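User: Second chain of the day. Same drill as before.
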Amino acid sequence: MPKMIADLPSKKKVAFPVSDQLDRYLLKYNNKIDITLQYEDLLRYQESVPLLDLDNEDTLWRTVYYSPSDQQEINRDLKLIYAYLKTDGDVDVIEHLSISRIDYCTFGNTQPFRIRIINKINDNYDHYYIKKVDASRIYGLELENLVSPNRFDYFLNRDSLIEEHIPGIPGDVFMKQNLDDNEFNQIRMAKEFIKFNERCFIRLLGDMRAYNYVVDITPDIEGSQFRLRAIDFDQQSYEGRKSFYLPQYFKDNNPIIFLGIKHMKPKAVLQYQQEERTLVAGRIKNSRSRLKELFNIMIADKISTKEKRERLKAELRQHHKTDVFDSCKSMGAIVRMNFRLLLQKDFKQSTFL
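Assistant: Same format as last time:
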């Protein structure tokens, strides 16, 4: 088991614009909509109050309020956006929807607005997010949908990014409340973290500290099944440190890592890593054409700095013990090469990409 460190971002993440090629790709695959309301419009709130949790603790979100005239227009467009997310734009559903709350997150790279929407028929509620556009995040969202076991909807709306809510228990909350379980479930938790760690490293998704992913728990015949799902994709292949792409190196993940140390032997760890690579290889095969198209765009795009790119190349060269990264001229090229090498270690799957 590797040494655990707190390998944090070097500085605030830079947002990158959406290129013409990426814009056309999103249009081709129906990930674009055109609605008047934009992220900047939501910044015109008149007042805000701290949002507290059930324990009366500050959540670092603020509930925002608008003038009556602005609120009417904003609510109309927010319901229309929800219709695109859930019913492919069928506006009939919005008649029984209402906007319960709009919350604003003042920290983080995309400083999202979270929309709480209620079905007036049964008082059931749902959420979605409106964020600043960042090409890095879009690449992260696409790779999540193509090579992970998880899928969710998102749209580019001119200068705004709209994302479906990903349900689950925040990782930090999960580790405080759920680790004191029977041994069988603890082993399953540790197994899922190993597989999650492998998925993140294969596609170079960084900054998976405990509050940047959620845990989905599914009751099973005996015990429970656990699925870790990333919810923050801003750090898709941006930083230059290899350890930044391995969740095992973040100190706030230590409680679940210690479960792995307690219950997992090295052979079991290797087995679960190999299982995850097999699953990723299968997903690549099923989405090969779209993934190749995405990588061609990503390779030509700028989504990091030269300094970070060169550092990551050097660290991955040392990790894989190969000089194939020397020819990579972009972060996109590094990601594709990392896919090839990790899948090639145990399988002859590199022709997929």
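The radius of gyration is 21 Å.

User: Great, on to the next one.
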